[in-house]
Amino acid sequence: MGGSPAPKRDVVWVDGLRGIASVLVVTAHICRSLAPHLLSPAMSDKLPPTLFQLPFLRCLVMGRPSVAVFALVTGFVNSLGPLKKSRTGNADAALSGVAKSTFRRFGRFMIPAIVVTTFSWVACQFGAYNIAHAANSAWIRDTSPTPSASFAGAFYDLFKSLGTTWIDGFNEYDRIQWTLTYLLQGSMMTYTTMFALVYVKPRWRMALIAGMFYFKWKSGDSLVGFNVYCGIFLAELSIDSDVADFVAAYPLIRSVGSASVIFLGLYFCSYPEENPEWALWSKELLHLGRWIFPSSVEYGRYYPGMGADLVATGIMFNATAKKILSHRFLCWMGKLSWPVYLLHAPLIRTVLTWVLFGASVRPQQGKDQDGNQLPPGWLPIANNWVVVFAIPLFYVFLYRVAGLWAQWVDPWCMNVAKVFEETVFRDDAREDKPLLLS
Q1: Which of 24, 97, 111, 352 is the most buried (most CB within 10 A)?
Q2: Residue 379: what are its φ and ψ, rounded to 5°?
Q3: Predicted pLDDT at 5
C-alpha cells in the first residue's frame, strides 16, 4: 500500500453522520423516559413486538450506537490531519499540531460541560426539577437532581460534581455527562497513537492500528476503544491512493458490498439493551455473541459498537450514502451536535417535563390496611395530544437553543480557552493554527 495520499476526498459525510447520531441520542432519551418498553425486542416473551421494537426500525430509538459513532468520529477526525501530513512527509508539522490539539481538547470538552452543569445547578436550586421528581417516568425521576440543603452546601455540591464528572463520570446535575470522560479518553488515545505512529510507513501503520483495534476488542473496551481505532483506520483508508484506485476499479462490487455492510451493521445496532431472549432474531444474536465476543462482556455495548463500525465503513465506500449524509441540513445538524448533546437532557427534565406533566394532578392512592394515608401516585402525562404536539416542538426548541449556544456560548468558551492557552504556552508556540477538530 503506497505512501502517497489520495486526491482530496469528500469527508463532509462525517458531519451528517454525527448529526444523525446526536438527534438519535435525544430520541433515545425521550423514549427511555416515556416508552421504556422499547428497550426490549417485544412486549414480553409471549407477546409480539410493537413497530419500533422490530430490528432496523428500533435503531431510531436507541442511543448506544450513537455513542459508538461519536467515538468513531473522534478517532476519524482527530487523526485525519496528522495522517495527511505524515503521508506528505510533513511529520514534524503533524507532531506540532497534535501537541497543540491535545492541550486544546481539554478546554473544548471541559469548559462547555462546566457551563451546562452550572446552568443545571442554578435551575435545580430554584426548583426547576420539582415536577420531574413527581413525573411518571423512572428515567426522568432518577436523573433529576434535588436542591441542596444549604447555601454553602449548594456550592459544595456544584464543585463536587464538576470534579467527579472527570474522575468517575458522575455528575449530579447532568447524569449523561458520564460519557464525556470516555470520549475525552478516546481523543487522548487518538493523539497518543498519532505521536507513536506518525513516522511509521502507511502500510505498517495500518497493521499496527488494526492490532490496537484487536487489543481493545479483546480487552473489553467496547465503549470507545475499538470504535476509536476503527475511526483511525478508516481515516487512513480514506486518504490512501491504492484503496481509492481499487474501489474505483470495481464499482458494482463496491456498491453491493458497501450496501450489504451497512445493512449488516444496522442489524447489529438493533440488538436490544434488555431481554434479548424475548425475540427470535435477538436470541440468535445472543447465541452468536458467545462465539465472536470475549467472555464476560456486555453484548448491549459490543453489538451497537460493532454495528456502528460496519455502518461507517459501508458509508465510506458508498457514494449514495455519502451524498445523502452530505446534505446541508444533516451537516447543519452535525455542526450543532455538541451543544445538542450537552443541552438535551437538562431540557428534557425541565421544559419537556413541564409541558407533558405540569398540568396533571397526582392521583390519590387511598389508605393502607392500618388506615394510614398512602403517598400520592406519580404525575401522569396530561393527555396524548400534548405528546403529539409537544415532542416535535421540543426538537425545534432544542435546536434553536443549540443554535444560540453555538452563536454565543461556544465563542465565549473558545475565548476562555484561548486566554488560558496564551498564558501557559511558550511564545514560539502561540501561532493561531486551526484545530484538528473544530
Answers
A1: 352
A2: -65, 125
A3: 53
Nearest CA-CA partner of 302 in 223, 234, 231: 223
Residue 241 has pLDDT above 80, yes or no: yes
Cell of 27: 430520541
Let me know: does 233 contact 80? Beta carbons within 8 Å. Answer: no
Residue 126, C-alpha cell as written in the block: 430554584
CB 73 within 8 A of CB 224: no
Residue 432 and residue 104: Cα distance in Å, rounded?
12
Query: Beta partners for 367?
Result: 373
Residue in 240, 280, 243, 242 with CA at minimum distance from that of residue 258: 243
Contact 110, 117 (CB under 8 A): no
- Tell me the CA distances in angstroms from 107 to 104, 146, 277, 413, 415, one per residue in order: 5, 28, 44, 8, 10
**Where do we find the cell 441542596?**
148
Q: How far, CA to CA in Å, does 133 sit from each of 137, 168, 411?
A: 9, 25, 34
For the stretch 378-427, pLDDT in tens is: 999 988 899 999 999 999 999 999 999 999 999 999 999 888 888 888 77
Average pLDDT, the chain: 92
Buried b (16+ CB within 10 A) or exposed e, 389-412: ebeeebbeebbebbeebeeebbee
Grid coordinates given for 121: 445547578
In angstroms, the CA 174 to CA 166 distance is 13
Q: Model confidence over 201-216: pLDDT tens digits?
A: 999 999 999 999 999 9
